[in-house]
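Work Package 3 (structural annotation) set out to generate three-dimensional models for the target panel prioritized at the project kickoff. During this period the team completed the workflow that converts sequence records into discrete structure tokens, so that structures can be stored uniformly alongside our sequence database. As a representative example, we reproduce one entry of 325 residues exactly as it appears in the project archive.
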Amino acid sequence: MFMADENQGARVYHLEKSVSGRRVGVLFYILIGYVLLQFIWWAYLLIDLNRTLYSSLGADAVRMKVLMVAGEGAVFLIFLLAGVYIMQRTIRKEMELVKQQRNFLLSITHELKTPVAAIKLCLQTLVKRDNLDKQQRLPLQMTAIENTERLHNLIDNVLLATRIESHIEFIKSEDTDITTLTRSIAERLKSSLSENIYLTLSLDENCLARVDQNAYESIMVNLLENAIKYGNGSKVEVRLTRNTQDVRLEIADWGQGIPDSEKPKVFGKFYRMGNEETRSKKGTGLGLYIVSELVNLLGGKLTIEDNIPSGTTFSVFLPTSHRTH
């Protein structure tokens, strides 16, 4: 009942904001129309006045004055229209940012409440039913641990996004065995995956790169969570290859893929495809933004491609280590 009221309130808030935004847009265009009409009227009066004042000087003099007024008016009109265009574009960007921030607040509220509610339920069950044997307690304990980890990762992402946006220096790159680190992260995540998700690893041995280990772990975890979320509960593959220039990490899923029109947008902060009120996939819109920013801070490159025959492949290129293999 509470969730229903909350969703209804969110829809009402969204509708009120939408109506308010349309009203502001209508008033803006009415004001611009009024300014243009006043400009045309003043130009007409000025030209008519020039004709009256300079009629005794001949047609050529009147024509010169009219052309001068028309030229100055044209310059003013060009600057006015350019200002309107820039203002309209700025307003549109601000409204889009406000919409994304509102969607983030809606999603983060749900993302925080869900694990907290699950942890609370598990703990209440353990407290009220203290006669449970070990086999009965274990699933409840594991559920509480998994949701605590989910909550921890969510808070980490929010804090990390804040540090990135604040330009706080926290990257400390060092020569790292990426193969061992990748295998360790993947094996740890495997234990929390549902049975219908098949995670495979294809890793070149002794891949050395110069990275910040915490940043690399955040990159990999966010890409894996994204692949699992949008891979339609099927196969997810992690590939690691090396050459003389860089180390390439690929994470591929076999889901529905990302339309070409959406690919340039998915790394934007708070950006998520679809409408927040009807979207079924959980998330905050921070994961791929964090990945993109961290890859840049590590001096690497991030690409997104279609996975043939279906799905998406994210590729991260990282500079190789100065150490010899």
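The longest helix spans residues 59-128.
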